[in-house]
């Protein structure tokens, strides 16, 4: 996270004055430190380069996507994961090479499969047995696939963002024979070519144990079942720091540890080391972003609580309500110590519309002040809604003190554009 106060006591991000930005372009606005995003991508590259393995890095666009974000991923030599026709369309419109796009999802629709095939994507990550027949039916030439397996491993993370446990809706269970069946079906298909195996055990994972254990389970199964692959994709899910006390995944230590472990397991099993792939989303963009709000009503219930309400809410910040996620906040236009404990509330008609339950802010906070909620770069814009007909925020990339708009604020007109009059 790269926010700091300048000598005039104004909060900056990537050397850009956030007060001026809020005044010029309005709020709520999500602002990204572009250099931070690039640095994260470079850190992953460097960590893998040191390991003397074949690797492919991919950005999980569900964390945050738009045309400029896709272009940035391209410039930083990342492939792209998409999970819907909309994410794929965004990537194609950004001019991204379709061969470097991978299509995920537990229920790809016929339209999505047909569109992805027409675009000429690199590979599908197959997530269900009946999907194999569907892809085969629509394909007219050979198409690479990875099979997403369910290893039956629990990542230590919030229940809603765990995906590797046995009863998860994702992947084909190794233990229950579905993964094996998937491999056979792909082998017997006319057009599908088994390029590799994929797993993703969950999100916000701080440690390497889960991934190492899972890789071991998967590789053992591959060896004993006599399945050869070119690529092993170990998913994303690397943790970020939301608040003090959180630890973000240590890329420089963690990646070598995982890779070394996989190399060792392959050696031990006498199994050829496949190309390794990861697909981080959150750890690329979360800490790069902040959301700027303007303070409106302040309501103090004596001896009970002080509510500081802002001009956005769960429409652009759903993670607190959904996962009880924690965030830090900073006053943008003055550098004063935060001695008051307040609740930062949104403006939507819902009691659960809270951004931060116990935020520290200076007692001087008043209507018209600007706040920056930190680490909002992942799963904020991408999970935004129009509940209460609230417009989606604008998004900016800042770099070297300059701001460029990457997504315009949604207009009122856009809110009714599909309504039939
Ligand atoms: N690969 C697969 C197959 C995934 O399902 C995901 C995330 C990723 C990669 C990227 O994971 P990341 O590196 O971003 O943790 N809305 C939730 C997160 C849902 C994640 C879904 N899958 C949140 O706001 O925490």
Automatic annotation (TrEMBL):
The modification N6-(pyridoxal phosphate)lysine is found at residue 62. Pathway: Amino-acid biosynthesis; L-lysine biosynthesis via DAP pathway; L-lysine from DL-2,6-diaminopimelate: step 1/1. It catalyses: meso-2,6-diaminopimelate + H(+) = L-lysine + CO2. Its EC number is 4.1.1.20. Residues 37-286 form the Orn/DAP/Arg decarboxylase 2 N-terminal domain. Pyridoxal 5'-phosphate binds at residues 237, 279-282, 379. Specifically catalyzes the decarboxylation of meso-diaminopimelate (meso-DAP) to L-lysine. Homodimer. This is Diaminopimelate decarboxylase.
